[in-house]
Amino acid sequence: MENQTKPAQAKPAQTQSALDEIIKNKYNEINALKESGFNPYPAHVEPKQNCAQAKEAPIDSEVVVAGRLVQLRLMGKASFAHIKDFSGKIQIYVQKDSVGDEPYTFFKKHIAVGDFVLVSGKMFLTHTNEKTIKATKVELISKAVRPMPEKFHGIQDTEVRFRKRHLDLIANEEVKDIFVKRAKIISSIRRTLDAKGYLEVETPILTPDSGGAVARPFQTYHNALKMPLRLRIALELYHKRLIVGGFDRIYEIGHMFRNEGIDTTHNPEFTMMELYQAYGDVNTMADLFEEILGNAAKSIGVEKVMFHGQEINLVPPFKRLYIPQAWQEKFGHDIHEVLDGRQFRREPLAALAKEQGISFSADDPDSKLFDELFETKLLAGFNCPVIAFDYPTAVSPFSKTKPGDPELVERFEAFVCGSELGNAYSELNDPADQLQRLKDQAIAKAKAKGEDAENADILDGDYIEALESGMPPTGGMGIGIDRTIMLLTGQDSIREIIFFPTLKKQD
User: pTM of this prediction?
Assistant: First the structure.
């Protein structure tokens, strides 16, 4: 009965010495049980129902349920408790006359909150109309040594929550719900793509070069091959090889690794989805993005969420913003004034940034000035999903240029409240053009690091060879899975939607 367990008052945190004493006593109890011939950790148990199924079972029906004991009220000849599994929680009624004298004495002496038990019995209704198991047998199947988190107030310290996620999940039901939604969202993405004929593929995590993006990789070394390897930072170049090889529609959901900063939207290990469609283009990808995000929202039953303090409408279609048009309307200038083929014109770009109050240094690359103008000025005021098209060629080395305008490319990025969710191109399939852009990118990267630009290596020379075999017109898209889940679950920190985020090692 829920009303038989009164909420406990908040207690001060246990001292380490008190905790050590509890643990010591528990181990002594476990050792005594083992010495008596009782095994508190049996290898095999057979529950017949979970807690939710037991609650749906008819009155007087037999059930066998396993779970963690989360509430317990011991009385003289009868006790009430609650056990919990992944499906939910159910009350049990343990009566001396029903289980027997010795089992009831064992129950009172050796079974405590935190332990796992197997309960056999019949369903009945209490006088408060709560479906309850009247136990005929209660078996201890796993003895907990450490005390459980304070069950009414949960774990409030975020550092403890992230470092000891198992306790966070025990204490905070809403945390479990976030990760259930995460699984449903990823399953929805797979269903959407599978239904459209996309094939899920797997490509290497360890690569000779990290491939397809500009980011600092994690590096390792393969002893047998005597060669350095990197953890992948993107999926792009392997996927395009598969398109060259004749796969028309492919996708992969996997972990990427970038040896860079950590903040509320970045974790060194994160989940990304990339897909490629032969005979598609940037517009194909935009329609698909709307379908993926809309279906993912439906999969967890939401149409609107609160994200970064704003109400976000997740029902497609989404706002489509064309950068050259928005640039003209916002700044009163043609975007081509700051473009010079595949590069930016530094002087007019810097002048515009200064005019718009953007702080920058002489060492900041042109791309950073463009990003600041775009993100802080053109995206300002848009909270619901925005798909921004027609980026400068200077910041898009893998995208086709727009017909008749080589200074712009067929690319979009999708944003919500300034947070990027996705990036898509009409993929560049001209090997000569791609080679030159990779060279330009490598030189710019080397200059930014103060390295010799003349000897800069392109990201992946083998990829150019693959392109020379011929790649059909192709649309490609990447979606940040973690950020998408942050949006759909209304979480402002990536640590809330990753089971075990990367944390600094404790002393």
Answer: 0.89
